[in-house]
Write a structure and sequence with these properties.
Layout: E1 3-11, E2 20-32, H1 34-38, E3 44-51, E4 54-61, E5 67-75, H2 77-86, E6 91-101, E7 104-111, E8 119-124, E9 138-141, H3 163-166
Antiparallel strand pairs: 1-5, 1-8, 1-9, 2-3, 2-6, 3-4, 4-5, 6-7, 7-8
Protein name: CYTH domain-containing protein
Organism: Luteibacter pinisoli
InterPro entries: CYTH-like_dom_sf (IPR033469), CYTH_domain (IPR023577), NeuTTM/CthTTM-like (IPR012042)
Length: about 170
């Protein structure tokens, strides 16, 4: 069984930019998203993601917290693009920056489009209590705040949030 243990953070500065090893644009959409989950019709989200010349189908359990079931399978890019255009309720676009720091891999997502202005750092861990670097540019943890889940950014994009929500001060 695939388990993802991931912590998500706001950023407190741009110091990470000088550490970027590579960046790639991504587009992802949900075939089973938040509306189905909230209605009690689904126990997971089903996502299609395209990045560069690759694509994946991803299934993630609809549970809160840093530890969730996750399964990911490569699929044909043409199939993924067709699913995004015809089956997804919307598309989240971002640039993913890869940063290595003290042996830890941070994925920093800089969102575009309706989520322009949102930048978050994610780190996957081997265990929920694993130690990880905490550089000065790593801000408040938002792992348990569902509004930061990518699946929610389609129905409620960052540009529609209140100023308090955008600053991470309001917990919703």
């Amino acid at each position: 069984m695939g388990i993802e243990i991931e912590r998500k953070f706001l950023l407190a500065g741009d110091g990470w930019r000088e550490l970027v090893e590579r960046s790639e644009p991504m587009a992802q959409g949900y075939l089973v998203g938040m509306a189905s989950i909230e209605a009690g019709h689904a126990k997971s989200s089903v996502r299609v993601r395209v990045s560069g010349g690759q694509a994946w189908l991803n299934i993630k359990s609809a549970t809160l917290g840093i530890e969730r079931q996750e399964y990911e399978y490569p699929i044909a890019v043409a199939d993924a693009r067709h699913m995004l255009e015809t089956l997804a309720d919307g598309v989240v676009e971002k640039v993913r920056h890869h940063v290595m720091l003290d042996g830890a891999h941070f994925e920093i997502d800089e969102f575009t489009g309706a989520n322009q202005g949102l930048v978050v750092a994610e780190i996957e861990l081997d265990t929920a209590d694993a130690a990880y670097p905490t550089p000065a540019w790593l801000g408040a943890e938002v792992s348990d705040q569902v509004r930061y889940y990518n699946v929610n950014l389609i129905d409620r994009p960052f540009t529609t949030w209140t100023p308090a929500e955008q600053d991470g001060k309001e917990n919703t």
